[in-house]
Amino acid sequence: MNKSVLVMNQGDASEARVYYCAHFVAESLGFFAREGVEIEFTTAQSGGHTIQGGQVPAVIAGEADLTIGGPMVIMKNHQDGGPALVCFCAAVAGNPWSLASAQPEAEFTVANLRGKKVIDVGNVGTASLCFRWLLEQHDINESEITLIAGSGNQQQDFAAVAAGEIDYALHSLHALAPAVANGELALVQSLSPLTGPVPWSAYIARPEMIAADRPAFQAFSRAIGHALAWLHATPAEQVSELIAPYYADYPFNGLVEAVRGYQQAQIFASSTEIAEADFAHFSTILQQAGWLSQPAPYEVLVESSLTDGRV
Q1: Are 85 and 60 in contact (CB under 8 A)?
Q2: In the chain, how long is the greatest CA-to-CA distance?
Q3: In Å, what is the CA distance from 189 to each residue of 68, 98, 116?
Q4: Contact 134, 142 (CB under 8 A)
Q5: Considering only CA atoms, which of 31, 12, 3 is closest in space to residue 242?
Q6: Residue 42: which of 13, 20, 64 has the closest Cα?
Q7: Helix (H, G, I), strand (E, B), or coil: what is residue 189?
Q8: Cα(72)–Cα(78) distance, integer angstroms
Q9: 3-state helix, strand, coil in the chain (%, to 5)
Q10: Are 174 and 195 a contacting pair, CB within 8 Å?
Q11: Cβ atoms < 10 Å from Cβ of 290
Q12: Which of 37, 70, 221, 296 stands 20 to 30 A from 79 (CA)?
């Protein structure tokens, strides 16, 4: 079998998050090779949360065939009249952000946030917007809590929470897991069940690139489907052992904590399909949060013909 080659830009170092590990699983277990596609991984030099930064410019410029990122970026790009981009092949099916505190809270509810201090450690646009949306859904006015922007020093912010100076840290479990594994912080609540099913991350390409090499993109999607099935069926310790080389500077106990937490919260997509209802729900959240001014058109922004359904 002659292999097709696809160049995938992974973004800068900040994009190397545990919840993006499906393509590392597919590479390590030979799923790409089995499907007849070779993936050449590249990186970006700087980060960003719009098409002006991070990994998406490489796709627009034709330097990469695909990348991974948030469909919310594609939605905003379309609204702003940007170059044609589509998302395909789901990777992350829920909000991967969590709340952590100094001590466990067995009976946590969103109402517990009233009168408390919450530090938004990561200051990541969409996560911050979704958190504010959650507050509104639970009739909590922002004046009822103290929402603090992260200082830019993650360890300093976590230390303030651990010392009780701030009540809760808001960040991705990827960022929180090492501190949780070491007992510095206690995981209080995954935001995934509160936000509901949303296509938080998927693979992104230009439609003309997909049209030019559809068999390769189909092979890529099938391989990711195999990886997602494996992620759902495999204990966190075994998953962590496989992907640890891709997270060389990340403590192993934190890696296990992150993988287990994401498995329990059903963050890894259970299907390569980007469901229209989930896409519409995400679009509604982003409209209500002020990121979008109009509904994002599923039929324009999602290439749904590459997937094989449930994994």
Answers
A1: yes
A2: 62
A3: 26, 6, 15
A4: no
A5: 31
A6: 64
A7: strand
A8: 10
A9: 45, 20, 35
A10: no
A11: 10
A12: 221
Neighbours of 309 (CB within 10 A): 8
* Closest of 158, 174, 169 to residue 259, by C-alpha: 174
**C-alpha closest to that of 265 among 182, 177, 142:** 177
Return the sign of the alpha-carbon dihedral for residues 143, 189, 279, 18.
Answer: positive
What single letter denotes the amino acid at residue 6? L
Q: Which residues pair with 41 in a beta bridge?
A: 8
Residue that has been written with the tokens 């949060």 in this structure:
289
Helix axes 173-181, 252-264, angle to 10 degrees: 120
Q: Are 150 and 157 in contact (CB under 8 A)?
A: yes
Question: From CA 260, how far away is CA 100, in angstroms rounded?
Answer: 16
Pairing of β 186-190 and β 97-101: antiparallel
pLDDT tens-place values along the chain, 311 residues long: 456 999 999 877 666 789 999 999 999 999 999 999 999 999 876 544 444 456 888 899 999 999 999 999 999 999 999 999 999 999 999 999 999 999 999 899 999 999 999 999 998 888 999 999 999 999 999 899 999 999 999 999 999 999 999 999 999 999 999 999 999 999 999 999 999 999 999 999 999 999 999 999 999 999 999 999 999 999 999 999 999 999 999 999 999 999 999 999 999 999 999 999 999 999 999 999 999 999 999 999 999 998 754 33
103 is written with which tokens? Answer: 């001590």
Q: Which amino acid is at 142?
A: E
Reading the block at residue 69, the tokens are 């990122």
